[in-house]
Amino acid sequence: MPLIYGGFGLVLLALWIFCLIDVIVTAEEDCRNLPKGLWIIIVLFLPEVGSILWLVLGRPQSVTRPGGLPYKGNSGRFPEYDRPGRFVPSNPDDDDEFLRRCRERAEEQRRAHREQQRQAEKNQDQ
User: Fold this and answer.
1) Which domain holds residue 118?
2) Could you tell me which residues come within 8 angstroms of residue 22 by beta carbon, excluding any fewer than 6 positions away?
3) Exposure string for 56-69, b = 16+ CB within 10 A, e = fewer
4) pLDDT per residue over 63-119, tens digit each?
5) Number of separate domains in the chain
6) 33's torsion region: left (phi>0), alpha (psi -120 to 50) or beta?
């Protein structure tokens, strides 16, 4: 019988630790119904009841960081491809300026290569 109570106590301890850490790492604006500081106090001082209340009433219902690793400055509000002000890539074949710059660069590289070949031939003749 003590083994059952001990196992139940370990489950409650694990639940309490999970909920306490979850409250701490949850963003202030994602906490529901009460401020984050009050949720920390409730879960800290009322372990069983506070943990269950956090899971039912306080925990965010949806994941705010869709995929990927969080990084400093990532509030999770906008995935990288939806971030306002982000450059939206277009098809390079439709971008005349991009194609012009590619052609100019390729021509410059061809000229430089021809010049190197002439220099090499000139050095071999001497």
Assistant:
1) 92-125
2) 54, 59
3) eebbeeeeeeeeee
4) 544 455 555 555 555 565 565 566 665 676 777 888 888 999 999 999 999 999 999
5) 2
6) left
